[in-house]
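Dear colleague,

Thank you for sharing your sequence with our group. We've completed the structure prediction you requested, and as agreed, I am returning the results in plain text so they can be pasted directly into your records. Please verify that the sequence below matches your submission; if there's any discrepancy, let me know and we will rerun it promptly.
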Amino acid sequence: MQGKYDLITLYVILIIALAFCIERVIYLSLAQINTRKFAAELASLVAAGKIADAIQKCKNTRGPVAQISLKAMNCLNSTEQNDIATIERTINMEAEVQGSYLEENCSWITLFIAMAPSLGFLGTVIGMVLAFDNIQKAGDISPTVVAGGMKVALITTIFGIVVALILQVFYNFILSRIEALTSNMEEAAQELLVMCVRSEKSKK
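Please find the predicted structure tokens below.
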């Protein structure tokens, strides 16, 4: 009976973890934009002195690159004197914030990946205990006596490993998307600094 509870728990873990995975895949897919095209359009607006238009473009564009760019454009548009070091710090701080958004809920996925095989092994131990209990009650070591407990042990172990493998594939895909977006943010940050330097020089 305990083995059935373990299987139900593994089913619940799989459903919850898949929900987190799907949410991350959708979020990261929506966050992906053509960074080079966006940066080129932004650079042309900044070069033309249309900072307000550049800010609006950032607001109308989704994703972490646009949010980092928005912070940089707000610095350029600010009435306060912002040197390049200040703008760089602002960009780096926003990049860290956006990076944390990208990795949100990933810790839950790794937890479920670790829990699934552990619950499977727990089912194995419980199945073995049941098998030995049946042997003790029957006073015999026949295949029929031990089959029930061994079946529970094997099923829970297999299912626990399968759940972990499914989630691991999703998690690796999510990590690859996060790495791609992080790379885009780093590239955008460098281009933004170049834009800001040129804009500040043009003002002088």
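Summary note from our side: The mean pLDDT is 83.

Kind regards,
the structure core
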